[in-house]
Amino acid sequence: MNTTPFSLPLSSPLATASGTIEERDGLVVRYDHRGHTGVGEATPLPGWTESLPDCRAALASAATAEIAGGHAAAMLELAADSVPAARHGFATALLDADARADGVPLYQWFDADRRCQSVPVNATVGDGAPAATADAVAEADDAGFDCCKLKVGARSVEDDIERLRAVRERVGDDLTLRADANGAWRPAEAERAFEVFADYGVDYVEQPLPADDLDGHAALRGGPVGVALDESLVHRRADTVLSADAADVLILKPMVLGGPGNAYTLAMRARDHGVEPVVTTTIDGVVARLAALHVAAGVPDIGACGLATGDRLAHDLAPDPATLSGGRLSVPQTDGLGLDPAEVSPDA
After folding, report:
1. Is the per-residue pLDDT at 235 higher than 90?
2. What is the percent of the chain with per-residue pLDDT over 90, rounded to a whole number?
3. Disulfide check for 123: which of 13, 86, 145, 261 has CB 3.0–4.6 Å away?
4. Looking at the domain assignment, is residue 128 inside a domain?
5. Tens digits of per-residue pLDDT, 159-216?
6. Is 254 domain-assigned?
7. pLDDT over 80 at 14, yes or no
8. What is the mean pLDDT of the chain?
9. What CATH number has the domain bearing residue 142?
C-alpha cells in the first residue's frame, strides 16, 4: 500500500455546520492486487469522519498489517465506525484493482448483470433571499437539471416557505424540489414545514430534526413529503435507523460509511425495507466521486443523487471521465473506476 497526501482548494469557501471549508485535504491510496494497481481516496470531513491525523495513522497501521497478513489484515485495521475515510481509501483501491482484474467497470463488479450509462443528479442551491433562490433554481433548470435541493433551516420556516413560493412561481411545477434542513428544526417547526411544503410539491426533507431524534423522524415520515436521513447515519447504525422506521430515504455517503462496498450494501438493504437510497459525496476529489457514482450506477432505477460536486473544486486529482449533461452524469464503462492510476496526482 502506498499513500500520497494532497490538498484540493475549493473554488469558493463552503459554509457548513462544522465551520467553513476552504480546501479538502486527504490521501490518495494505491494498492497492487491481482496483478493490477487500484487507486482510492481518503478525504476526511470534519463532523462526519475521523480527523486527517487519525486517518493518516490508521492507513499507516493498515499498511504495516498488510505486509504480514495481506489485504484482509489491512481491512481489519480499518473500522468503518471509527476511521471511515481511511477505510474508504483502502477499500476503494482494493475494489478498483478487483474490477480491473475482472475486466469490468466497478458498478458491474457489484452486479454483473447491470448496464448503466448515466445516473440522474440534482443541483444544490444554498440559503438566500426568495428572489436569489428562484434565480439559482431557474439557472439549474435551464442547465437541464430535473431535480434541485434547497438548503433550508437557516431562516424561519415562514421565510423558507416564501423562498419555495418564489421558486414555484419562477419555474413551475415540473422540477422536482427537495430540501435539506441539516437538523435545524424543532418538531413543531418540522410539522409546520411539512404541512406547507406538501403544497409546493417538495419530494422530501433531508434531516429535518437533530440526528439522534429517530422517534421524531418516525412520526414525520410516511406522508406526501418524505423524511430523508443523512447525519443520523453518523450517529446510529443504518440497521437501527431502518428498524425504527424513521426514514423514507437514506442519504448514503461512501466516505462516511467506510467505502463504496458498504454504501452499495446499505443501498440494497434499504430497498429491501422499502426505503429509497440516494448516493452523495462529501465534496471529494475525482477518485471518491467516481466511487460514489459507481455505487449509484449499481442500484436499479435510482433517483437523482448528489454527485455533481466536482465544480466545487478549483483543481482536481485527475481529469474527470464522467461528464454532466441534461441533469445526468455519465458512468465510465472502462475497467474499475475508469481512471488510469498513473494519472492520479496531487499536482494534476
Report:
1. no
2. 92
3. 145
4. yes
5. 999 999 999 999 999 999 999 999 999 999 999 999 999 999 999 999 999 999 999 9
6. yes
7. no
8. 95
9. 3.20.20.120
Q: Is 77 annotated as a binding residue?
A: no
Question: Which candidate in 236, 253, 289, 294 is catalytic?
Answer: 253
Measured from the Cβ of residue 101, the count of other Cβ atoms closer than 10 Å reads: 16
Q: Is 149 a catalytic residue?
A: no
Give dist(CA 269, CA 276) in Å, integer: 10
CA distance 95 to 241: 27
Q: How many residues does the chain have?
A: 348
- If asked whether residues 95 and 144 sit together in one domain, one would say no
Rounded Cα distance between 191 and 184, Å, is 13
Q: Please tell me whether 206 is known to bind a ligand.
A: yes
For residue 227, tell me if it sits in a domain.
Answer: yes
pLDDT in tens, 64-87: 999 999 999 999 999 999 999 999
Q: 141 and 70 in one domain?
A: no
Residues 122 and 88 in one domain: no
Q: Do 178 and 309 sit in the same domain of this protein?
A: yes
Q: How would residue 239 be classed by pLDDT, with cut points 50, 70 and 90?
A: confident
- pLDDT tier, 15 (very low <50, low <70, confident <90, very high otherwise): low
Do 46 and 176 fall into the same domain? no
Q: CB burial class (10 A; 0-12, 13-18, 19+) of residue 218?
A: middle
Last residue of a domain, one of 57, 91, 110: 110
Place of cell 474527470: 320
Strand bridging mode 36-42 / 19-33: antiparallel
Catalytic residue among 24, 88, 151, 289: 151
Host H or E run for residue 22: strand 19-33
What residues make up the domain containing 276?
Answer: 118-339
Distance of alpha carbon 73 from alpha carbon 22, whole angstroms? 35
| 80 and 188, same domain (yes or no) | no
Please name which of 233, 301, 308 lies closest in space to residue 268, comparing C-alpha atoms.
Answer: 301
CATH of the domain at 45: 3.30.390.10
Which helix (H) or strand (E) element contains residue 343?
none
* Mean pLDDT of all residues in 139-156: 96
The number of distinct structural domains making up the chain is 2
Pairwise CA distance, residues 249 & 203, whole Å: 10
- The reply, when asked if residue 343 is annotated as ligand binding, is no
